[in-house]
Amino acid sequence: MDSVRKSGCGNNANLEITQSTEEDPLVDGPLISQDALESAIKREFRKLPTHWAVGVISFLHVVYVVVCVLITVFCWLSDEHSAECTAALNGIDSKTLVLLGKVALWVIVFIYDQFIQHHHSALRRRGYLNFDRMTRGMKNLPFLIHSAGNAAMLTVIAPASLLDSLVRRLSVYLLLSIICLELLLSVICLLRYLVHVITFNNKRPRPDVTEEERYHSHSGNSHTETGFRDGSSLEDVVEKQADVIDYLKQHNSVLSRRILMLTGQEIRA
């Protein structure tokens, strides 16, 4: 009777071992070195390709302002070149041309803003949460500045006749001031953002979670504070935790595929 029980226990043990081996085929496989995994992860770094968009939008904005200044000087403020301006513009009113150019520029800035948002969402999914938060205000400001500029121009154009009756060509000076101020503020924000992007691409950092683990491993402190602390915003903490969880899910999926690929290479070798 005892021998039957022992044999039954032995069969169950063998069955459990067989099942666990079948469920986890990597148990008896070759171990993957940490250097191989780290080198595979390092190759995943992708530069943020938004610097060229900053250059394009800045160039177009400068061209628009230069055209507006030329139109203002030769068509609005000077009566000597009115016929020449009409011939050069093919009969189109100069104010209409300026407004149409402003609308076209706003559409381009809107496309630029969507392009930036798309790449920053991808960057956040790759684990670079701190950089996205650091540049959040800078990357959103150009679109807000152009939208505010449109509102200011409409505010000046609507009572243009009343303003010109108070001071001759006052609406023209106000429009030109708004356009130049808009350029100044937009270029400052774009240059600041461009510096951060170039620095980020040159540093080629690891994701925030990896950098934090590396920092604490070198400092000998394994405890990390990720909870709510005095002086911190609860919304920011919740948003950061949600981003970290989303990144870790994707990171684990990528790492699992890397492990399977490297394991297959080790087995074939």
Automatic annotation (TrEMBL):
Q: What are the UniProt keywords, alphabetically? A: Membrane, Transmembrane, Transmembrane helix
Locations listed in the record: Membrane
What the entry lists under InterPro entries is as follows: TMEM192
Q: According to the UniProt record, where is the region Disordered?
A: 208-231
A GO term from the CC aspect: late endosome
Does the keyword Transmembrane helix feature in the UniProt annotation? yes
Its record classes its membrane topology as:
Multi-pass membrane protein
Q: Would you identify the family this protein belongs to, as annotated? A: Belongs to the TMEM192 family.
Q: What is this protein called?
A: Transmembrane protein 192
The organism's taxonomic lineage, starting at the top: Eukaryota, Metazoa, Chordata, Craniata, Vertebrata
